[in-house]
Design a protein that fits this description.
It comes from Streptomyces exfoliatus (Streptomyces hydrogenans). The protein is of the alpha+beta class. It contains 17 helices and 15 strands. The chain has three domains: 3-204, 2-Layer Sandwich (Beta-Lactamase), CATH 3.30.450; 213-301, Winged helix-like DNA-binding domain superfamily/Winged helix DNA-binding domain (Arc Repressor Mutant, subunit A); 315-408, no CATH class.
């Protein structure tokens, strides 16, 4: 399925969006393009990855289990009375709970909208929970806005739920049903439920240590620093500085920090000192020390936690804590090295473990959708019943690699023969 096909559909289709009938929204068109690029079949169905025993064990240990009483209290009666479904998925789009009106539950089984099935955008196309996770904000998807034909009789609204301490995406909460949900109030409602779930997790979680800093930088271009009860969203350059200082608690000299931060060797120390001065004004004078540059107190960085779990052999825990590449848009040489090293170590551990669930979490993520090494490992590990879509995706990736290699070998117009 070509991008041209999706573009043509986006330009000509008319769908009943949340604000009334009109042209396809840019958010939906972008999601269709991502779905097509992931080779999602418009006529396919979501894949069930966890059986009852696996699902029960996974749900019991998932952080969102602690928020389910609040989610059910706020959504349960609304879903049942309105003949809707409430659903909660993990950060990979795998459904953990799907509950609600019995008749609607039976109907939803026809498209595998069930607990244990993966509804990430890369696996199931445009849908509210999957797309909300892809863009990390509340999303409503109405009828024909869905990518897959079997889902177009449904309307859904979903909002991501974040870890209140680190900001990491834990999953999403969703309301799914018929056309009565095609109203902006549905989106506001599910967003309020997600915020309530985060508040519940904050109440149940451990109190933050006053002298401990928390740094969340995986899967986000702008890191979030937790310090003294504050959550500070950092600029991209300040994010890079904090990541490098968190990685080197003993401190970094000014000239070395300059080398780690800037590709352009002509950048002067004056530029770095100005950035550090702005960062110190943002954080407060006590948090950022100099000579060498370092952070006061212990720093709990999410990327360091993944590294520690890998070092101890806890591959499942490491994969669960990996929310995406470290500052993915950063070109700072020191950050690029840290990002690539962590991703390479985790990928190697997943391939070595050969667990189909862990491999699928990586392969169906936004950062793993083109990772041919992991897709090959998944193809070797997945049960025969789940092999066809994995094999199709792998064949597509290998064809693209082959075409790219051929193009590189083909002489250009100015190449001597």
């Amino acid at each position: 399925m070509s991008d041209a096909w999706v573009t043509g559909r986006a330009e000509t289709a008319t769908v009943p969006g949340p604000g009334g009938s009109g042209r396809v929204r840019p958010l939906v068109a972008a999601s269709w393009r991502r779905s097509a690029r992931a080779r999602v079949s418009p006529d396919g169905a979501a894949r069930v990855e966890l059986d009852e025993d696996e699902l029960a064990a996974y749900r019991e240990g998932h952080p969102l289990a602690a928020a389910m009483p609040v989610i059910r209290e706020l959504m349960g009666a609304y879903a049942t009375d309105g003949e809707h479904l409430l659903a909660v998925c993990d950060a990979g789009g795998r459904m953990l709970w799907v509950e609600g009106h019995p008749a609607t539950l039976r109907e939803a089984r026809g498209m595998n909208f069930v607990a244990g099935a993966r509804w990430s955008e890369a696996a199931a196309g445009t849908n509210a929970p999957g797309t909300a996770l892809a863009v990390d904000r509340p999303v409503q998807v109405v009828a024909s806005e869905h990518f897959r034909h079997p889902v177009r009789a449904w309307t859904c609204a979903a909002a991501p739920v974040h870890d209140p301490r680190t900001g990491r995406v834990l999953g999403a909460v969703d309301i799914t049903g018929g056309q009565r949900l095609a109203h902006p109030h549905s989106l506001g409602f599910v967003q309020a439920v997600a915020r309530a779930a985060e508040s519940q997790l904050a109440l149940l979680g451990p109190a933050p240590e006053p002298d401990r800093l928390g740094l969340s930088a995986l899967g986000r271009d702008e890191a979030v620093l937790s310090a003294g009860g504050r959550r500070i969203r950092l600029s991209r350059r300040h994010s890079e500085i904090l990541v490098l200082l968190a990685h080197r608690p003993e401190g970094v000299g000014g000239q070395e920090l300059l080398t780690l931060l800037y590709e352009d060797e002509s950048v002067t120390p004056v530029t770095l000192r100005a950035e550090l001065s702005r960062l110190r004004a943002l954080l407060g004078p006590d948090l950022l020390r100099s000579r060498p540059y370092r952070l006061k107190g212990a720093v709990e960085a999410d990327f360091a936690a993944v590294d520690r779990r890998l070092a101890s052999g806890a591959v499942s825990a490491a994969a669960g804590a990996y929310a995406g590449p470290l500052l993915p848009a950063s070109l700072a040489p020191g950050v690029v090295r840290l990002r690539e090293r962590l991703a390479d170590r985790l990928r190697a551990a997943l391939v070595g473990r050969g667990d189909p669930g862990l491999l699928a979490d990586w392969a169906y993520s936004t950062w793993g959708e083109d990772d041919v090494v992991v897709w090959r490992a998944l193809c070797a590990a997945v049960p025969a019943s789940g092999l066809p879509p994995v094999r199709a995706r792998l064949d597509s990736l290998e064809a693209e690699l082959s075409a790219g290699a051929t193009a590189l070998q083909r002489p250009g117009p100015h190449t001597r023969r």
